[in-house]
Amino acid sequence: MGHFDTIGIGDAGMPVPSDTEKIDLAVEAGLPSFIQVLDNVLSELQVQKVYLAEEIKIQNPEQLAAIKKIVGDTPIEFIAHEEMKKDLSDTKAFIRTGEETPYSNILLESGVVF
């Protein structure tokens, strides 16, 4: 991925535009989890910013806390869930997990290692 490119990771129910590359990892409900996939992707990708749905603050605060722990000091921008769905058409790919909790979706903006 190039600087400023984005990739999405999300739950099993996230609607993804037909022209967006899909990587479907879901093998059963909850497997793999959103957090497992996010953690592994972040170990391989330099990320300069993440985007989360504003709705996660109220609808899934436990998942938000887990995300914040994993992304550490990486800046987080909250956007409307509907905006996130539209932004998926501009991502390089979307990784579908087996996650079945609300608003477990994220966009990762690629940074540079130097």
UniProtKB/TrEMBL annotation:
Pfam families: RbsD_FucU. InterPro entries: D-ribose_pyranase, RbsD-like_sf, RbsD_FucU. GO terms for cellular component: cytosol. One of its GO terms (molecular function) is intramolecular lyase activity. Its EC number is 5.4.99.62. It catalyses: beta-D-ribopyranose = beta-D-ribofuranose. It is an enzyme of class 5 (isomerase). One of its GO terms (biological process) is D-ribose catabolic process. Keywords: Carbohydrate metabolism, Cytoplasm, Isomerase. PANTHER family: D-RIBOSE PYRANASE. This is D-ribose pyranase. It comes from Companilactobacillus kimchiensis.
